[in-house]
Write a structure and sequence with these properties.
The chain has a 4-stranded mixed beta sheet. It has a two-stranded antiparallel sheet with strand order 1-2. Strands 3-4 form a two-stranded parallel ribbon. It has about 180 residues and is α/β, with parallel strands linked by helices. Helices cover about 35% and strands about 20% of the residues. The chain is globular. The two termini are about 20 Å apart. It comes from Paractinoplanes rhizophilus. Keywords: Nucleotidyltransferase, Transferase.
């Protein structure tokens, strides 16, 4: 997308990051790993993975460091999911609470897990990150798929009308499609 800071790009009059944070409006704390725009309309805690740009698992570890020990569930979300809703997060959370699994993610129509659109038992997610780091020696460049090898996950289908909540914007065409859906 031409080097743009994707989370700050607008969809439906709000940045994608603002829209993702609105989907978890009742989360406490809300944590952003990466740059936080000065005009972000909601309070968040922010951090960076070390080194910056070392990947989503390193970012997950950095974010988890700010999650208090008494927080039972953690939503692990990409910042470019402009169509994510509170209802979609509730479905994941309720699934994670009721399933004998460690978390819940959406599965798309092609059967792929949408791993950066999930809700996890915080303790299990921390343990999985620790185990992956121990097995690799370092989290730099670790993929979310590698992390998932250490977690039991419930896969959830989205059967409601409209766009899927995990729709992410990786191209200008994706951004245009999200803008159309957000109207």
């Amino acid at each position: 997308m031409g080097g743009a800071d994707k989370p700050t790009l607008p969809v439906g009059g709000q940045s994608m990051l603002t829209r993702v944070l609105a989907a978890v409006h009742d989360a406490d704390p809300r944590i952003v790993v990466g740059p936080v725009p000065a005009d972000l309309p909601v309070p968040v805690h922010s951090t960076r993975e070390e080194p910056p740009g070392s990947g989503p698992v390193a970012a997950t570890s950095a974010g988890l460091a700010l999650v208090p020990a008494d927080v039972t569930f953690t939503a692990l979300l990409a910042a470019d999911l402009p169509l994510l809703t509170g209802e979609a997060i509730d479905v994941l959370r309720l699934t994670a609470e009721s399933a004998p699994m460690q978390g819940a993610v959406y599965r798309d129509a092609e059967g792929r897990r949408q791993m950066l659109c999930g809700v996890w038992r915080t303790k299990a997610l921390r343990e999985a990150v620790d185990r992956l780091e121990e097995s690799r020696g370092d989290l730099r460049g670790a993929s979310v798929r590698e992390l998932m090898d250490f977690l039991r996950v419930a896969e959830v289908s989205w059967r409601r009308p409209g766009p899927p909540p995990w729709f992410d914007c990786d191209t200008d065409d994706d951004l245009r499609a999200a803008e159309e859906w957000a109207r």
